[in-house]
Amino acid sequence: MSDFHFDRRQVRRNFGRAAGTYEKHDALQREVQSTLVDRLDIYEQAPEVVLDVGAGTGRGSAALKKRYPKAQVIAIDLALPMLRQAKHHAGWLKPFGRVVADAYTLPVPDHSVDVLFSNLCFQWCEDLPRLFAECARVLKPGGLLTFSTFGPDTLTELRAAWAAADQQAHVARFLDMHDVGDAMLAQGLKDPVLFAERYTLTYPTPRALLDELKGLGANNADADRPRGLTGKQHYRRMIDAYEAMRVDGVIPSTWEVVAAHAWGPPAGQSRREGSGEIASFPIENLRGSRRKTPF
Q1: Residue 150: strand pairing partners
Q2: Thinking of the domain 8-153+173-200+255-268, which architecture would CATH place it in?
Q3: Residue 53 bridge partners (DSSP)
Q4: Rounded CA gap, 85 and 59, in Å?
Q5: Which of 15, 74, 161, 165 could form a disulfide with 97 if both were Cys (CB 3.0 to 4.6 A apart)?
Q6: Which parts of the sequence belong to the Methyltransferase type domain (predicted)?
Q7: Beta-bridge partners for 123
Q8: Exposed (0-12), middle (13-18) or buried (19+): which is 176, by Cβ within 10 Å?
């Protein structure tokens, strides 16, 4: 589906290194998280198990535990240092679990999760069929998947500034909302709803934006990224190109945020795999139809 791939080890390293600085730069992440938590009103039941995938420093996990105090809330992240930081948000009155794991391979049984929540993590998972197949696997029938992710118009100014300097991949690429929706449907998730919002953040200099990206762990992890140091001339051309975009004395940066939700498929719901479809059923549903054949 995508023509690019992320280096998963680099993603882990980037976020691990940023664990101590993340909360100094996460104003947008907190704003999107707050909106995503408010939209949980569409889930009217009392969940037993809630996953926060890509939990980072655990602000979202703490908010989920506050909202669902009787639920088992589990913070999952690829980077162990992030989960160590998350301990500061896991109060003794409302603790939540912390598990190092990948969004592609969630360490929970099939059909065991009531709410799967993820704030600005899925943009690092370009294999959408694999990602949403895993979501469909762990959700209970009728369980809620709700997430936010970055769309392709994120960091357009920075991408354009680098394009004026050279033709290499310096800025992470993200998938279109329509591709995300198609992948959700293909994996059997029910009634997906998606919408996009744009945020414009401003900075005193292009360097301030680059420092923020590094502080968040959102450095470029594209598998095709340049491996060597960027030459001073290329860097200077990029800075000059970005400075030309200055408006009212500040440097603008666009962030396209895609928010979505869908529901866990019922048992036996088919999903597409390759050119065919597969359906799964609990084994107990099959036992009653077995017949012995006389010889």
Answers
A1: 257
A2: 3-Layer(aba) Sandwich (3.40)
A3: 76
A4: 10
A5: 74
A6: 51-146
A7: none
A8: middle
What is the identity of the amino acid at 145?
Answer: L
Distance CA 175, CA 216 (A): 20
Residue that the structure tokens 């980037």 belong to: 14
Q: Pairing mode, if any, of strands 113-119 and 139-150?
A: parallel
Q: How far apart are CA 74 and CA 91, in angstroms?
A: 14
